[in-house]
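Entry 12.
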Amino acid sequence: MTRDRVLPTGRRTAVQRRELLTLVAMCLGVMMTFLLITATISALSAIQADLHVSPSALIWIPSAYTLVVASLVLSAGTLGNLLGRKRMFCVGAVVMIAGGLLAATADTTAVVIAAQLISGLGGALILPNSLAILGSTFTDPQRRTEVITVWAAASGIGLAIGPLLAGFLLDHSSWHAVFVSDPVLGVVTLLLAVPFATESLARGERLDVAGALLGTVTIAALVYALIQGGQDGYTAPPVMAAWIVTVVGSVAFVVVEPHVAVPMLDMRLFVSRSFSAVMVIAAVSLFGFTGVAVLTVMFYNNVQHLNALDTSWRMLPLFGVYVVTAFLTGRVIRRTGFKAPLTTGLLLGALAVLGLTTVGQDTPYSQVWPLFVLFGAASGLVIAPSTAAALVSVAPERAGMASGAVNTARQVGSVMGTALLGSLFTARFSADLPHQLAAHGVPVAARAPIEAAVASGSTGTRPPAGAGRAAIEDAFASGVHTGLAVVAAVFFAAAVLALTAVHNRPHQNGTHMHSPSTTPTAS
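Predicted 3D structure (tokens):
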């Protein structure tokens, strides 16, 4: 860049060091937010056994965090524009530290859920503001694309470390220790962010109260409907009420925002087919990534009967290859643009997931890990570029708005990956179990007790033997395969969207819109 040629060597080195440490701090921040998701899921069995948590309450331990993050991430980006992105990022880190410490000392289910709600607030502040800080720190479009792909890769590192760390800690301590990891990471993040990240604001920014309220309520209702619908059914009265709030809130948001002088989300961004397509692809990418991870964990735990640590080691190729591919894709985009990696990644991901639908109880790992490698590489070609494409579609001063939008899409996609695929799995499992019991020759008198035990969740402590166990395993595998088939279909459809609607180089497509300039201030 021109700045590198003008600045003296010593000054240029100092600037590059500050930029590097800023990138590390932002990556640690996003790593915290994703590590908590998989670490919590890995600790659920231990939490349930210790606190005697009911199945309906258990689902809300990880879901409380996701609900708050998805609901507030868009508003949190606006707060960063208004009050300072670095300031809000650091507040988010402090809040996550507090939430982790509360969970680590919790002795009731209510306190654990409250701690997750607090951590969700911290995660919502970290995600859009870390991305916006990178957008304002690295203003060259090519360089910005590279660092954003690194940032996106950090999410995969967090997802991969979560189960491994949880499995290790659960082998040597209680579940409380699992929640100490985020406070430790949070302290390190603050030690880097406070001295090295540069503060930035959006000049003339004002809080869009109506947009913030409508956006938060609408997304919260949507996420609640997705999560609770997976438990009670999507037509249950409370869930139907949430769907109605979602529809009414969405319409009101679209009607109100164009009339706000400084909107939280400028609806003119969606005039670009490419920007709209990127939002969909960002949601699909996390829908598939999270969904495949959750379904695979369920398969290994309940069909091949592996513990959390053994399952994590087997999934490491998926996460590891994802991280490496995401890092490399930032440089590839400079030569190819966005269309090729997005389309190729979605197609390869669909093929990999179709391959996973053939994995059964006796399938050796030697036949599975290549599919994990392929899916990890495919995800690296999609998740990071879709995030980068959203940010380079707008001017740097719109980085906070765009990062809030793409993070909202990613979080909603992640919730759908667990909630929708989870409910689809449950429906298929329940429907197939009677047929599997009959096919395995289980006596008619024994079938009803086995079905009742499965419905109550007691098979985990008192598993049936022989033919009954084999029938449950086959029905379970059938449910997992159904969910994976849906992921493959969604990925194929998204590949068509990427090929036909995404501009190859969004930062050149004229979608930049005039807005007040970003004002850097001393850190």
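Annotation: The beta strands are 199-202, 518-521. The chain is about 80% helix and 0% strand.
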